[in-house]
Amino acid sequence: MGRVYNFSAGPAVLPECVLKEAADEMLNYKGTGMSVMEMSHRSKAYDEIIKTAEADLRELMNIPDNYKVLFLQGGASQQFAMIPMNLMKNKVADFIVTGQWAKKAYQEAQKYGKANKIATSEDKTFSYIPDCSDLPISDDADYVYICENNTIYGTKFKELPNTKGKVLVSDVSSCFLSEPVDVTKYGIIYGGVQKNIGPAGVVIVIIREDLITEDVLPGTPTMLTYKTHADANSLYNTPPAYGIYICGKVFKWLKEMGGLSTIKEYNEKKAKILYDFLDESKLFKGTVEKKDRSLMNVPFVTGDAELDAKFVKEAKEAGLENLKGHRSVGGMRASIYNAMPIEGVKALVAFMKKFEEENL
Ligand SMILES: *Cc1c(COP(=O)(O)O)cnc(C)c1O
């Protein structure tokens, strides 16, 4: 069997050309006589890999000079603790809880200070983004926290919340590099790369320099202090070296594609094919409020759990993999990240049409 269309939410599809290039360089990276996996992170060859990766990311996202880019480990989940440890000077933070990941971050922050849930969409199974234009932001909040694209529920903030001057911290794991962003609107943008950029094991943190201080909560480990990694340009200890190398290749690929504006157009085109079909289908329906629909994660249901299971099974047999929805929503979810080709989305919709005819 050849390669399938992989709709996994993460780890997820990577550009085939990136995988091929990595395969070509596997045994002997650019005449060094060794694989990037075998290389010292202090070597000249690796120094160039990590510096080029950072420079390309800065160019893609137009990251201003007063922001640091950190390549860290521990998954996005480790940031749920690292953020409060480093930012909670007043021991207060406000959370907009729009899904499981935001909820986990909110719960973890409670270990370190007062975490306030200032808005939530839990009343309707996180199927929408609440109005965030005039929320009760705490006067002494150290930051306001959001999960910008909700991987499980398929919602996305189309507009950033009004933080009333407070620092905005955003988990962009599942929408990283899917469209242009104005970095200056954030204090921290971070995400695990295994959704939309690279292999699991790397977390990218883009952090405004004034938020990087020695004044962290007592007991914060050296490894969980942003300053440690910022001062050492992400080489304080051995970084997830091979993962960063693959991320670098994906940045190059995105640049060749034309950058984030072009990618956004492509993502909109792909998502439209699927959403248009869901809107006219008599069998399938989307689970999210239209105005809040994600371009990356598209949950849908038939309304019949048995039929959902049949769909997932038959789709797999047709080379359309990992379409089972998250257990908290049920049904299906198609993750259509940057690296999912439009042919994959078309194949999915064609299969859904056929399934609908056979099962309605
Ligand atoms: C997957 C995901 C996480 C958790 O990522 P880990 O790297 O597994 O810790 C957090 N936030 C969002 C939005 C995610 O999609």
Q: Quick one: CATH class of the largest domain? A: Alpha Beta
- Classify the fold: give the CATH topology of the largest domain: Aspartate Aminotransferase, domain 2
CATH architecture type of the largest domain: 3-Layer(aba) Sandwich
Number of domains: 2
User: Which overall shape is indicated by the principal axes computed on the Cα atoms?
Assistant: globular
Unique bound compounds:
pyridoxal-5'-phosphate
| Sheet with most strands: strand arrangement | 2-10-9-8-5-3-4
> Could you give the count of β-strands?
14
What pattern of helices and strands is seen along the backbone? Answer: EHHEHEHEEEEEEEHHHEEHEEH
The whole-number mean of residue pLDDT values reads 98
- Which sheet architecture does the biggest sheet show? 7 strands, mixed
CATH homologous superfamily title of the largest domain: Type I PLP-dependent aspartate aminotransferase-like (Major domain)
Q: Per DSSP, what share of the residues sits in E-state strands of 2 or more residues?
A: 15-25%
Alpha carbon gap, first and last residue? 30 Å
**Low-pLDDT segments:** none
How does the helix and strand content classify structurally?
Answer: alpha/beta
Residues in helices, as a percent range: 25-40%
Radius of gyration: 21 Å
Can you count the helices?
A: 9
Structure overview:
The chain is an alpha/beta fold and 360 residues long. It has two domains: 16-256, Type I PLP-dependent aspartate aminotransferase-like (Major domain) (Aspartate Aminotransferase, domain 2), CATH 3.40.640; 259-359, Alpha-Beta Complex (Aspartate Aminotransferase, domain 1), CATH 3.90.1150. The chain is 35% helix and 16% strand. It contains nine helices and 14 strands. It has helices at 16-24, 44-61, 75-87, 100-109, 226-231, 241-257, 260-280, 305-317, 342-359, and strands at 5-6, 67-72, 92-97, 114-120, 143-147, 149-150, 155-156, 168-171, 188-192, 203-208, 285-286, 297-301, 320-321, 332-335. The protein has a seven-stranded mixed sheet with strand order 2-10-9-8-5-3-4. A three-stranded antiparallel sheet has the order 11-12-14. The chain has a two-stranded parallel sheet with strand order 1-13. α3 runs parallel beside α4 (100-109). The two termini are 30 Å apart. The structure holds pyridoxal-5'-phosphate (PLP).
